[in-house]
């Protein structure tokens, strides 16, 4: 959104759009991810965290791009399959190819609710949507670890009809929820609540072929608001309980219905898995 990189966390006025409650002393996952994707909506503290991670794991930028591309492919496939409602949890700072843009390229009247716990994401999303039809989209600041604050939220229900299929997107967000916080029960609550024909879209960080590498990279997140939890393919598959997995199942992120032939570099990006399940 902003043209220039944001300033020092200790100095310089906040950009006009940024809410006063944003914390510039801790790295935030949304802003680290924005930096990895080449965005400008991040602070020194986020860039420092990302650089620590990149030093340990140079593939992290390619992983971030592969993840964003997966989100795009999943939304397009589901929209083309007839889904017109999207609940995008852990939205991130909206960039080109965001959920609404892709969904509406297939269904101009697609309904999209963006949920994130980070006030800076909500500010960006609201600015982006200020001209949008309020009947078709909403921005909700909520924490996925408290599913009821999303599932019982009036603003969510004002846009999405829970009697009809909804694609629930949890793309690169569940790895910020620990087992102690019941990540699998949280996903199950969403699956239980949505109507048959709804979809669950998940991507999630994993250990990968160079054991310990992601573990070292996430030390960059040490001072961040959320720690990253790595899960293996079978633990990620377990998020899809109560759904039928679409082909090709839970696979490394670039390999979910790729739109081009994957090269060796992409096939080596096994530091995360993704899948899409349909509730029957
Ligand atoms: C890596 S970004 C992913 C953005 C987008 N889903 C994508 O894949 O392109 C993770 C996002 O999840 C959000 N997030 C992390 N923990 C969360 C939580 N407990 N509740 C809601 N959002 C959360 C972060 O603020 C960030 O925007």
UniProtKB/TrEMBL annotation:
Short name of one Pfam family: Methyltransf_19
Superkingdom of source: Bacteria
UniProt entry tagged with the keyword Methyltransferase: yes
Keywords recorded for this protein, A-Z: Methyltransferase, Transferase
Segments of this protein annotated with the region Disordered: 1-21
InterPro entries documented for this protein: SAM-dependent_MTases_sf, SAM_dep_MeTrfase_SAV2177_type
BP-aspect Gene Ontology terms: methylation
GO terms for MF: methyltransferase activity
Protein name from the UniProt record: SAM-dependent methyltransferase
Organism from which the protein derives: Catenulispora subtropica
């Amino acid at each position: 959104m902003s043209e220039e990189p944001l300033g020092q966390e200790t100095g310089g006025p906040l950009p006009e759009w940024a809410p006063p409650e944003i914390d510039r002393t801790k790295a935030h996952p949304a802003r680290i991810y924005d930096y990895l994707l080449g965005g400008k909506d991040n602070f020194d503290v986020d860039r420092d965290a990302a650089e620590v991670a990149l030093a340990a794991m140079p593939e992290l930028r390619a992983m971030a791009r592969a993840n964003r591309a997966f989100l795009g492919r999943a939304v397009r496939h589901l929209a083309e399959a007839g889904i017109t409602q999207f609940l995008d949890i852990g939205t991130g700072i909206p960039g080109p190819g965001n959920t609404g843009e892709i969904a509406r390229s297939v269904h101009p009247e697609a309904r999209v609710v963006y949920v994130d716990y980070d006030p800076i994401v909500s500010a960006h999303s609201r600015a982006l949507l200020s001209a949008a039809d309020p009947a078709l989209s909403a921005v909700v600041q909520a924490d996925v670890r408290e599913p009821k604050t999303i599932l019982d939220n009036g603003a969510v229900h004002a846009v999405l009809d829970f009697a009809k299929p909804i694609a629930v997107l949890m793309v690169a967000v569940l790895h910020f929820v620990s087992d102690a916080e019941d990540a699998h029960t949280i996903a199950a609550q969403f699956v239980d609540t949505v109507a048959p024909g709804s979809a669950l879209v998940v991507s999630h960080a994993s250990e990968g072929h160079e054991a310990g590498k992601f573990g070292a990279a996430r030390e960059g997140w040490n001072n961040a608001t959320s720690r990253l939890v790595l899960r293996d393919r079978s633990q990620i598959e377990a998020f899809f309980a109560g759904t039928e997995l679409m082909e090709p199942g839970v696979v490394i992120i670039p390999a979910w219905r790729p739109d081009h032939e994957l090269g060796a570099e992409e096939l080596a990006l096994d530091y995360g898995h993704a899948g899409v399940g349909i509730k029957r």
